[in-house]
């Protein structure tokens, strides 16, 4: 039963194989004929799609503000190359029917398009702007560094300090004297002689009055940058009294014998004190405005006490020598019985005394008014 069945099947299989072998040459020819057709597939007409125009380049960042004397203009950015004009576009797809494309063309359209040339130009322009901004920053930094390195203008030299004193030139002053002694009015003449050689000084004052006699005072000592440094004071009336000023020991010793009095640098005697005031005011009168006070330890013939002078305004005096402006100073008494004194110093005479008025505690006074002044 099996042989009759297998024989027809075997015959059918052989017939099929023989037919296949017979058809092989025909498929090879068809493949060869199709090859040129496939190679020419890209030659099919396609429509080109232009890339969208590139976005405008981002604006260059504004340069950071720096402290500069003047705003510096930014250098002009490099000229941008003109973008190539785009090719004329064909009608949009919506305006004409879309031709049927083979599968190969559809795959090609699905790939991303290459960037167009205008995009590259935009990138070059941005780089140029950035470079210009960097160059501007470098120039600004260099300018700031140069300004910082520049030497500062030389500071003005401080004015030289004013001297403490300015000594008046040697002078002989003559005075007309009016006064009262024990309720007796009198008139007299006085002479005040001021001499120095730049290192030492000598002062002599003498008053002569009829029926009263002569009274003289002298002061001598050294000169320093601070003014007069008295060493010996002598008061000669009915009898002579004197004081020795020993600054090294810090005391004044008296003759006739009296208890020594303490002194310090700057102390004066009762005659040198007026010329020390002259030297201070002549050097810098602006240091002593009206209302200011000047104090010295002042040594007499048997004691030492503090004398304080208050500066007042300038007055015009009517003197035997003629009208003369003079600065008034007042000695402030410490006690009710202290001697009071008024002193007028004339700027025209180097602040030498133009008038001196001394009043004792009992009311006696002497008023010396300038009559003449000459070189000694």
How would you describe this protein?
With 376 residues, the protein is α+β, with helices and mostly antiparallel strands. It has a domain at 171-374: YmcC-like fold (Beta Barrel). The chain has helices at 2-39, 103-110, 117-149, 272-283; strands spanning 171-181, 184-196, 200-209, 213-224, 227-236, 240-246, 251-255, 258-262, 268-269, 293-299, 304-319, 322-332, 340-346, 352-359, 365-374. A 15-stranded mixed beta sheet has the order 8-7-6-5-4-3-2-1-15-14-13-12-11-10-9, covered by helices on one side. A hairpin with a 4-residue loop joins strand 10 (293-299) and strand 11 (304-319). The protein is rod-shaped, with a radius of gyration of 61 Å.
